[in-house]
UniProtKB/TrEMBL annotation:
Superkingdom of origin organism: Bacteria
Keywords assigned: Membrane, Transmembrane, Transmembrane helix
Protein name (record): Cytochrome c
Species: Desulfosarcina widdelii
SUPFAM superfamilies registered for this protein in UniProt: Multiheme cytochromes
Length: 128
């Protein structure tokens, strides 16, 4: 019987210690960063997909684009509104979002992700 109580006490202490960081940081998340749009992005007023979709799913869209371009040879993307875009990170996305530090890096740093896009694509293809 004494061992049973020691086991429960040990488990309780373990659970408290393991979950302490979660309880300590509860409700203290930093707000999402403000993104700075270029003049061209502001003038366009629309992206290839709605802002909410791009915020949550841009990497999946870029993966589909990469697959379609590299394996299928497709270069054209037609969005839900029927507008035609070139499937190109460098020439479509970075045409409007040319300031990588003020646009891409802010969210990627906030989310602690390290995308591998820049292994192949330069971050400012037009030299702006």
């Amino acid at each position: 019987m004494k061992d049973k109580n020691k086991i429960f006490a040990g488990l309780a202490i373990f659970i408290v210690v393991v979950t302490l960081p979660f309880w300590f940081n509860l409700g203290k998340a930093a707000p999402a960063p403000e993104l700075e749009l270029t003049a061209k992005a502001k003038a366009a007023k629309t992206c290839v997909m709605p802002t909410e979709f791009m915020t949550a799913n841009h990497m999946q869209l870029l993966d589909v684009w990469r697959h379609n371009v590299v394996r299928g040879g497709e270069r054209a993307f037609v969005n839900a509104d029927g507008k035609l875009y070139d499937m190109s990170l460098s020439n479509t996305c970075l045409d409007c979002h040319s300031n990588k530090e003020k646009f891409c890096d802010r969210c990627h740093n906030y989310a602690s992700v390290r995308p591998y896009c820049w292994d192949c694509h330069i971050d400012n293809p037009k030299g702006e």
